[in-house]
Amino acid sequence: MSLRLRTISREEHLAFIQSRPSASHMQVPAWADVKAEWRSESLGWFDESGVQVGAGLVLYRQLPKVKRYLAYLPEGPVIDWFDRDLDGWLQPMLAHLKDRGAFSVKMGPPVVVRRWDATTLKAAIAGGQAKRLRDVEPDWYEPRAFEVADRLRKAGWLQGEDGGAGFGDVQPRYVFQVPLADRSLDDVQRGFNQLWRRNIKKAEKSGVEVVQGGFDDLEVFHRLYVVTAARDRFTPRPLAYFQRMWKSLAAEDPNRMRLYIAYHEGEPLAATTMLAVGEHVWYSYGASADHKREVKPSNAIQWRMMRDAYALGATLYDLRGISDTLQEDDHLFGLIQFKLGTGGQAAEYLGEWDFPLNKLLHKALDLYMSRR
Fold first, then answer.
1. What is the pLDDT of residue 59?
2. Which Pfam family is an annotated match for this chain, by its short name (predicted)?
3. What is the pLDDT of residue 199?
4. What confidence score (pLDDT) does residue 60 get?
5. 315: which of 18, 214, 306, 361 lies 20 to 30 Å off by Cα?
6. What are phi and psi of 120, to 5 degrees?
7. How many other CB atoms sit within 10 Å of the CB of residue 84?
8. What is the rounded CA–CA span in Å between residue 173 and residue 168?
């Protein structure tokens, strides 16, 4: 099949995304408005009949002092990754991006390689034999994913390093997901471990109330988020970032972004943002207070989001990034420990890949990023 690639309008881009069961929230046209510091472009792939068969959101970041760009397709593009002629999709894209002044291209194929059930991982942790996710035999794997990786390497793409923890990529390679398809909400809750079920009941008995907030409530979320940033030692995004995210995504789809706040005796104790594209729903950002943790607002808010995701017709509730560590003394272990309680699955994606269009500038960028 001969494919043609061209710049498309936001309307064409959105229509294609809406025709799919799901796509990453970072591949919708409105994400370009969220990332306002990047220049953006929507790309479309068309077959010989002129029918659109793929789409990609490209974000361009300019190098200081020169008109050369890093072209980034986060968790994209949205194409047929299992096509044996993958070059037929990617070569036109590389040629186009080079013409646009790109010196390097980074993309994140939305292809799951392996999945591990919660029961499998709990047994591995209890046994103490496995240090990393990859040390554990997966419950499911996608043979075609390895073929995709081979095709990319042969075409000159370089796989990003995962840093040994799954966080070397810009987007997480390892995530935790709760399947919702063909399950009732009772089935989902029965999949929780005893601690999760007990904590949800404790929140209810304590009078924790989870409400869906609006744009004006982002200030409440952000105050808790700043507390969380200080506790977990990361640099918080400004309130304006979340306000821009809300306005941009809500303008595209009123259900694209939601805000939830857990109150106890009128005091906000936890807050989260949720993103939805088609049948895929993500827990995006979370924040919580340092006190009253005993009333379990975080468990209550997650259960509310799962129920609402189910009501939206989601087939997957995505708790996003985890480390690949299974060692209880590792400071990153808490990420997977909390999420394991949902009874879901750990999933490994193919990771991010780079194509140096100008090897000298690409190497300079790598050096700069490593020093950061």
1. 98
2. FemAB
3. 98
4. 97
5. 214
6. -65, -45
7. 10
8. 8
Query: What count of other Cβ atoms lies within 10 Å of the Cβ of residue 39?
Result: 15
**3-state SS of the chain: helix, strand, coil percent to 5?**
40, 25, 35
Bridge partners, residue 344, by sequence = none
The predicted pLDDT at position 97 comes to 98
Q: Can you give the pLDDT at residue 370?
A: 64
Token pair in block for residue 137: 């035999």
Residues of the chain whose pLDDT is less than 50? 163-168
**Is residue 235 classed as helix, strand or coil in its secondary structure?**
coil
Q: How far apart are CA 37 and CA 59, in angstroms?
A: 9
DSSP 8-state symbol, 239: H
Distances from the Cα of 220 to the Cαs of 98, 232, 256, 259, in angstroms? 44, 19, 20, 10
pTM above 0.90, yes or no: yes
**Residue 165: per-residue pLDDT:** 47
Q: What is the pLDDT of residue 369?
A: 65
Q: Tell me which H or E stretch contains 368.
A: helix 359-371
CB atoms inside a 10 Å sphere around CB 366 = 14
SS3 (DSSP) at 306: helix
> Distance between CA atoms of 301 and 229, rounded to whole angstroms?
19
**Is 332 in contact with 131 (CB distance < 8 Å)?**
no
DSSP letter for each residue of 151-185: HHHHTT-EEPP-TTTT-SSSS-SEEEEEE-TT--H
State both tokens at 119: 């029961």
Nearest CA to 247 out of 31, 25, 13, 72 is that of: 31
List the one residue out of 9, 39, 31 whose CA is nearest residue 108: 31
**Close Cβ partners of 74 (under 8 Å, ≥ 6 residues apart):** 24, 26, 27, 31, 57, 59, 108, 170, 171
Domains in the chain, start-ordered, CATH in brackets?
4-108+352-371 (3.40.630.30), 112-140+170-349 (3.40.630.30)
Tokens describing residue 252: 């595209």
Tell me the C-alpha distance between 177 and 179, whole Å: 6
The two structure tokens encoding residue 318: 């995505």
d(CA 68, CA 66): 6
Token pair for residue 180?
A: 């919702």
Cα distance between residue 314 and residue 308, in whole Å: 9
